[in-house]
Amino acid sequence: MLTSFYKMHGLGNDFVILDARIGALPLTPDRIAALAHRRRGIGCDQLVTLHPPVAPGADVFVRFFNPDGSEAGACGNASRCVADLVWRQTGNATPVLQTSAGVLPTRREPDGQVTVDMGAPRIHWQEVPLAAAVDTLHLPLPGDPAAASMGNPHATFFVPDFAMLAQGAALEHNPIFPDRANIGFARMDSPERMRLKVHERGAGVTEACGSGACAAVVNAVRRGLAARTCTVELDGGTLRITWSEQTNHVLMTGPATTAFEGTVDLAAYPQ
Ligand SMILES: N[C@@H](CCC[C@H](N)C(=O)O)C(=O)O
């Protein structure tokens, strides 16, 4: 069962991308976890699959899976990578991605970076989701985080340093997050510049989290800490995030890089 894959990354947040547009792939949560394993598989922060689109105007349907086998509604860095891949395959510089959380227009910039319209943030407690009707701007947790969904659940802690990062795994599983959550730690260096580290749901600390950067800027703007356009510095590099006042959509701009292409025998991995 030889299947080709692309190994790509956005700021060191790395992906195995499998193309299921020409035929379904026999993937299960266990097989995804095995493929994502850093020593026994190809290794990645997320496994991404491409499918024929259903939404009118969409060019490709994209699904995102964490290395624990769970599925996520959004992945900002992988969205840029898929847009870059579609551009390289077809020459379409504005591919539209369909995801389980919505339809995302993308654009290749003149400098080769990719902008993804990540849609409108969801800030009602049921949309995040949270387990109870609480103020999403001030969750009843030590550290006073704010919550938002960018198609996947995020909580942002505004911190002076990153001493809390080790608490990310416990916070991911806090009962206030019924679907677990990605946990961001943001240090505001100025209203236009943020330093961010993210413990990702189902993946642990990664070098960058695109949806986490979008959620952190949204939450920082809601708190009066950031300008609508903010540079987010992650361990793997920087993203430019704009939360548009006109459209309420969040635009994310950053690089997309191909590391290598390869072939994998899916049957050699557990089902
Ligand atoms: N790395 C991603 C987010 C991937 C999904 C996340 N771990 C989740 O479970 O929601 C990004 O760049 O946004």
TrEMBL record:
- UniProt family annotation: Belongs to the diaminopimelate epimerase family.
A Pfam family this chain is assigned to: DAP_epimerase
Subunit comment: Homodimer.
Name the positions where substrate binds: N13, Q46, N66, G76, N77, N152, N182, E200, R201, G210, S211
Q: Which SUPFAM superfamilies match?
A: Diaminopimelate epimerase-like
- List the catalysed reactions: (2S,6S)-2,6-diaminopimelate = meso-2,6-diaminopimelate
Q: Which GO terms describe its molecular function?
A: diaminopimelate epimerase activity
Q: State what protein this is by name.
A: Diaminopimelate epimerase
Q: Main localisation, per the record?
A: cytoplasm
Pathway of action: Amino-acid biosynthesis; L-lysine biosynthesis via DAP pathway; DL-2,6-diaminopimelate from LL-2,6-diaminopimelate: step 1/1
Supply the Gene3D superfamilies for this chain. Answer: Diaminopimelate Epimerase, Chain A, domain 1 (3.10.310.10)
Query: Which organism does this record belong to?
Result: Acetobacter lambici
